[in-house]
Task: structure prediction
Amino acid sequence: MPDLLTAEEFGRLVQGFEHTAFRLETRERYLDDEEREPVRRFLAGEPPDDAWFMDWYDAVRQLTAEGRRMERVRVVSEPHSDYTRFGIDLASRLNVPSGEDIRYLPRDRARELGLPDEDFWLLDSSRVLVLHFDGDVLLGAELVTDAAEVVRRAYWRDVAWHHAIPLDKYARS
Result:
């Protein structure tokens, strides 16, 4: 296992980018303690309580108001899992209004395109945070600055972004 950043280091890097931050999400679901209750409420048809999400929402609003771009491609299986439906709802209500540009790419298409089953953040096309998991639980992130590895992720970003469908269009389909 590579050296993983502390949560504080990870947060500083993700929110400290200068121009662009891109996230590739490839997992079927993420088991985050903060999301358990919101997912349960969503599946039960109860009104959302988004208090748990507001720190991220506020941070993204500030970053994008400063002219920085935050982009995300979510690779998803079809038909959608409960978690994917939750994610689409959350993105529509909060991520996109905060300033994130989120797109969706069907998993079969991602495989055809040769995209990896790897989650990462690409920051300013100069640093990569490779996310490591145990099952569906995030263990932490590894900082990668090797130029060849950064270029590889920039290529994957470009392929994913080019073929992904903007959230509003994807949600209507």
Summary: The CA atoms of residues 39 and 57 lie 17 Å apart.
